[in-house]
Amino acid sequence: MASFELGESWPLWPDVFHFTYVENPGAAFSWFSGYGLQLRWLSLIVSVVLMLVACFGSRMVRLDQVGLGFLFAGAFGNGIDRFAAGRVVDFLDFRLINFAVFNLADVFINLGVLCFLVGLFWPEPSQREEAEPGGEETVEPPPSES
């Protein structure tokens, strides 16, 4: 922010990837731009809920833990911007795919969602064994002598 003017762009790889300084007062893709105060508090609430789930929730498999960590990092990072400046600073500009400018917190949120989706469709081996019918070994009681 100190080195760029609003809207200024610095090409790292011309026409592919640039650092571009933009400010987003809304949520993803500037949706809800008129709700900055509500988004500020929503990011705080989401961060607190994610911390509570991590501390007091049921035990999670590793992929869900990683996903929760990414979601927390993204919500908390964007929340810091919202409380400090009332808006989120975006700077990652992939021009090759003509996508909206975004920031690392947005990347973390998407990685967190991806971790949960991967875990949903490809559970860890310990989960698969528990979920398979007949996966448990049963022990027959000894025959009674009568």
Q: How would you sum up this structure, described in words?
A:
It contains 4 helices and 3 strands; from the N terminus they run E-E-H-H-E-H-H. The relative contact order is 0.15. Strand 1 and strand 2 form a beta hairpin. The longest helix is centred in the middle third of the chain and has 24 residues. Helix 1 packs antiparallel against helix 2 and helix 2 runs antiparallel to helix 3. With 146 residues, the chain is of the alpha+beta class. It is elongated, with a radius of gyration of 23 Å. The protein has a 3-stranded antiparallel sheet with strand order 1-2-3. The N and C termini lie far apart (86 Å). It has a domain of 92 residues.
Sequence-ordered SSE layout with sheet pairings:
Elements: E1 9-13, E2 17-24, H1 36-56, H2 62-85, E3 88-94, H3 104-121, H4 125-131
Antiparallel strand pairs: 1-2, 2-3
Please outline what is shown here.
With 146 residues, the chain is α+β, with helices and mostly antiparallel strands. It has four helices and three strands.
Number of helices: 4
Basic shape: elongated
Q: Class by helix and strand content?
A: alpha+beta
Please tell me how large the radius of gyration is.
23 Å
Q: Multimeric state of these chains? A: single chain
Largest sheet: 3 strands, antiparallel
Q: Mean of residue pLDDT?
A: 85
Helix content: 40-55%
* H-E order: EEHHEHH
Topology, number of strands: 3
**What is the strand content?**
5-15%
Q: Enumerate the strands of the largest sheet in spatial order, edge to edge or round the barrel.
A: 1-2-3
Give the termini separation.
86 Å
